[in-house]
Amino acid sequence: MTKHARLTLVGALLMSGVSGASAADYIEPPVVEIPPPVVYEEVDHGGWYIRGDIDYHWSRWNDADYVTYAPPGYGSFDFGELRGAWSVGAGVGYQINRYFRTDLTLDYWAKSDFNGQTSGVCGGVPCTSSDVSAYSAWLLMANAYAEFGTWHGVTPYVGAGIGGARIKWDDLRNTVGGVTTVHEGSANWRFAWALMAGASYCVTDNILLDAGYRFTHVNGGRMFEYAPIAGPGFDEGFDVHEVRAGLRYQFGGSSRCAPPIAYEPPPIEPPVYK
């Protein structure tokens, strides 16, 4: 072997040893896994709630008829007006999920004063009467509501309800030419239905302020009893417009008002190389 060949072989062996030592000294770096982002989960649960409300309402008069004991045998009011009045109510309900709830409510409508007029013949001469009374009511309703998204603690909703109203009329005072005839007022239960719209606001996790509008229709029924010459009388029902405000207390907290819960995965242990 020539001198040049021997030098070449020695150099190759030396380079091979250096490369082997470098490969043996190399340690693979650990794998760093990026943890997933924090996920916020909104609490979505149902629960019982109680409510209390106050309102001011206006009742629209839908006319009334009455029996007479002279031809033609019946009569009707020329007009009738009902004044506005206050009411209070309470209820219990269940939040089924974030978008649907139901409740059962009982409201008391304070007296709405009534003023009306009738026309007829008195002793062969045309005459008119002045009629005054008032009605109050208990309203028992089963309601269902659809709720929408919540923005800055405000949740709009729409709803509908069916139930019954116990209408109680005061005595009707019919005055003609300074002479007053009193007809005893009637009290009876009637079918009623309602449509609602409004919004609730989160005061705390448990307390919501509720404000809205309710339209209620009450069927007609007996208004007053017999008195000399005329009676009984039957009103044709009412259309009632209500502006309402109240508070709801949600047991266990409202899913609308509770802040979202942050879910953090367990820490990732780095792999160990041996």
UniProtKB/TrEMBL annotation:
Swiss-Prot/TrEMBL keywords:
Signal
* Signal peptide bounds: 1-23
Q: Name one Pfam family in it.
A: OMP_b-brl
The reply to whether Iron-sulfur figures as a keyword in the UniProt entry is no
Task: Please state every residue range assigned to the domain named Outer membrane protein beta-barrel.
Answer: 13-251
The highest taxon in the source lineage is Bacteria
Coiled-coil residues are none
Name of the molecule in the record: Porin family protein
